[in-house]
Design brief:
Elements: H1 3-6, H2 18-25, E1 32-35, H3 42-51, E2 56-61, H4 64-75, E3 82-85, H5 91-98, E4 103-109, H6 114-118, H7 144-150, H8 153-164, H9 169-182, H10 188-198, H11 210-221, H12 223-233, E5 238-248, H13 251-266, E6 270-272, H14 282-287, E7 295-301
Parallel strand pairs: 1-2, 1-4, 2-3, 4-5
Antiparallel strand pairs: 5-7, 6-7
Helix pairs in contact: 8-9, 8-11, 9-10, 12-13
């Protein structure tokens, strides 16, 4: 498998831990796989190469713009692939739509794709000037700029502390409230500059704005709520012996996955396959800086469940 194919045919996106994903999902000719976070399609393409024309991959993404770009790239080579614009947190609706299909593997890659990060219009990146949007699906909900405009200092502090694990949450929240009293916060660099006046930049440390932007993105998209709802019901989409693989990128997500898998194991529904989270190898983290925080967990369905 060439690096170009793994990276999504020149999109600039390199999927994380491809070999590890394939090891746990074990796709083969005729397998049915559900990719609930299709993104730029790097993992999907690796799976499709193995399941062949007799297999089925259903690619789901909340970001309709990203979904259409990826679908257009994959359709020519893999016409049997199905694509759904949906939020993986709406697991009951997905199960009803896909019924009676059961899958041998389900993948959740919770990272933001490079295509999303590198598009300044989406507002995910503090290093590029763009509107403070951060919605995964721009056809729904309100952008992060509305939260920054309307939330109290206490509410902003809670968001930054809980979702960003930011120890300077109070100072950042108060600085934002002071700044918006003078002029509206309209772009990402303006917001990053406010944070940088509170949090000192240190050599070798992450950018001061990293945790603030993460927290706003999580809040605007209800990422933890959607993940919890998905994990609660995704086993109903899997065959017995089917495997769910989740790649998370911060401790809040990883903790949810860990607790959900353990609960499923205690209830006799799941077998946890990863005692500890699997991390990328040194070569991958050198090649792909965005892989450094990735954690992979996997579990297998061992008992059939009802609707």
């Amino acid at each position: 498998m060439t690096a170009g194919r793994e990276s999504g045919e020149g999109t600039g996106h390199e999927p994380v831990m491809v070999e590890e994903v394939l090891e746990y999902l074990s796709p083969r000719g005729g397998s049915r796989v559900l990719d609930l976070t299709l993104g730029a399609g790097g993992h999907a393409r690796a799976v499709l190469d193995l399941i062949g024309p007799t297999g089925l991959l259903v690619g789901v993404d909340r970001d309709g713009e990203q979904l259409e770009r990826t679908a257009s790239r994959l359709r020519a080579d893999y016409p049997q692939t199905r694509f759904l614009h949906a939020n993986f947190g709406e697991i009951d609706e997905l199960a009803a739509h896909l019924k009676p299909i059961r899958f041998g593997g389900v993948l959740l890659d919770l990272g933001v794709s490079s295509e999303q990060l590198d598009d300044p219009v989406r507002g995910f990146s503090f290093s590029r000037t763009g509107p403070i949007d951060m919605r995964m699906d721009r056809s729904q909900g309100q952008p992060a700029s509305v939260l920054l405009k309307t939330a109290s200092a206490d509410e902003l502090e809670r968001v930054f502390r809980e979702y960003g694990q930011e120890r300077h949450a109070r100072g950042i929240a108060r600085a934002i409230v002071r700044e918006r009293a003078r002029a509206p916060l309209t772009d990402t660099r303006q917001l990053a500059a406010v944070v940088e006046r509170v949090v000192r930049s240190r050599p070798g440390a992450i950018d001061p704005a990293t945790r603030t932007f993460q927290a706003l993105r999580i809040a605007v998209n209800d990422e933890l709520g959607n993940l919890a709802r998905c994990l609660e019901g995704v086993h109903r989409l899997l065959d017995v012996q089917g495997v769910i693989v989740v790649i998370s990128f911060h401790s809040l997500e990883d903790g949810l996955v860990k607790r959900s898998f353990r609960r499923g194991q205690d209830e006799g529904r799941l077998e946890v396959l990863t005692r500890k989270p699997v991390r990328p190898g040194e070569e991958e983290t050198r090649r792909n800086r965005r892989a450094r925080s990735a954690r992979l967990r996997a579990a297998r369905v061992i008992r059939a469940t009802g609707e």
